[in-house]
Amino acid sequence: MTAARPDPGPDSAAPPLPEWRISDAPVDYAQAVAEMEARAAAIRAGEAQELVWLLEHPPLFTAGTSARDADLLDDLGLPVHRTGRGGQFTYHGPGQRVAYVMLDLDRRGRDLRRYVSNLESWIIDTLARFNVTGERRPGRVGIWVDRSRDLGPGREDKIAAIGVRVRRWVTYHGIALNVDPDLGRFAGIVPCGISEPGLGVTSLADLGIPVSMPEVDAALRASFTRGFCPAVP
Questions:
Q1: Minimum mean pLDDT range among 18-27, 106-115, 129-138, 205-214
Q2: Which strand (E) or helix (H) includes residue 223?
Q3: CA-to-CA distance for 50 and 216, rounded, in angstroms?
Q4: pLDDT, position 6
Q5: pLDDT at position 232
């Protein structure tokens, strides 16, 4: 029997950067999940490097482990995938940068709250590179943008979603940042189960910031290094 690796704790030296992969063509959702599960198992077995995989999906909805059937308002003729990640319903499609993150938390500290906080900080730092202020909100998963100046008092829009799964202390699934997707597709669901008045969904393009996907990818990589691997120059 192989002995369990000790929890290195938060004060251990930071692990090196993971491998980065970018898929140029949209990736089928079921294929992506199968590849993530295989890679996570290989990381757990010590047979593969950690991985951050940047991609887009064809238009589809996904339902996490907490999804309520009533929150699928209209499938709009799109596939609906039931998936093992945390969270509720969300939309994926072209113009949205999905980042699937496969990290070994045995090497990074067995702290799921800290891991999710690091994902949040990663998105916030990435948005800051485009002069967008992303914010956390208690009780609401994901990253939000205050739109009260443009759209009226109390208006806040979600710009990035987070949904994770951890198996034997290896993470997979991850984040979805709205760069320039078809925001109309979100009308088919109650995004992440949040239906309060004044809350919506936005994107960098909707905020008047036209950036290319390679620019977003470069910002994600630079911000990831600072948040997850601070010892790496």
A1: 106-115
A2: helix 213-228
A3: 21
A4: 41
A5: 52
In this predicted structure, the answer to whether residue 2 has a pLDDT above a threshold of 60 is no
The active-site residue, picked from 63, 192, 204, 207, is 192
Cβ-proximal residues to 230 (8 Å cutoff; 6+ apart), any chain = 14
Residue 192 tokens read as 């992440």
Domains, the chain, in order of start with CATH, read 19-228 (3.30.930.10)
Radius of gyration of the chain (CA): 17
CA distances from 62 to 82, 124, 145 (A): 6, 23, 23
Which parts of 24-164 fold into alpha helices (H)?
Answer: 29-44, 105-108, 112-128, 148-151
pLDDT digits (tens, 9 = 90+) for 171-195: 999 999 999 999 999 999 988 777 7
Q: Which amino acid is at 22?
A: I
What's the pLDDT at 13?
57
Distance, in Å, from the CA atom of 146 to the CA atom of 197, rounded to the nearest integer, reads 14
Q: Is 192 a catalytic residue?
A: yes
